[in-house]
Amino acid sequence: KLEPKWLELEKAKDAAGIVSQFIAPDAVRMFDGEVHTGSADIQAAMEKQMADHPDAVLDWTTTSVAVAASGDLGYELGAWTYDPDGAGEKPEEHGQYVTVWKKTGDRWLAVADAGTTIKPAEEAPAAQ
After folding, report:
1. 91-96: long-range pairs with CB below 8 Å, 24+
2. What residues have CB less than 8 Å from 54, skipping those under 6 apart?
3. Beta-bridge partner residues of 91
4. Which CA distances in Å does 38 have to 15, 33, 56, 116?
5. Could you tell me the pTM of the whole model?
6. pLDDT for 42-84, tens place per residue?
7. For residues 50 and 44, what is the distance between their CA atoms, to the nearest angstrom?
8. DSSP label at 2?
9. Which residues of 1-128 form beta strands (DSSP E)?
10. Is the Cβ–Cβ distance between 114 and 30 less than 8 Å?
11. Separation between Cα atoms, residue 103 and residue 38, nearest integer Å
């Protein structure tokens, strides 16, 4: 239920809103070799990414969600697409992600968010 609001804030380029509503203070975020720890570091990285690529478009789809029997820990798996210029001139990237959620009081917060780019398959060599 949280993903649509997170995606809405992502499309609005609202890093502060994402962090304040969805990221635990001690969270870790790992994407393609970059690791950011703590909500302040995560917000700074998001703001830089958004400023460096103001026309970029990020979208994702949740494919699976599971919640522990205790009811206070869960994870989601999904797939994402990223158009770095929003105009489709630069190649679109595709990947997968996992987000681990922890219930704190009455709120679910992301404690770990990780993803990776799926590299396109190399073309087979031409037949001779």
Report:
1. 93/117, 94/118
2. 13
3. none
4. 14, 17, 24, 20
5. 0.88
6. 999 999 999 999 999 999 999 999 999 999 999 999 999 999 9
7. 10
8. -
9. 23-31, 34-37, 57-67, 73-83, 93-104, 107-117
10. yes
11. 17
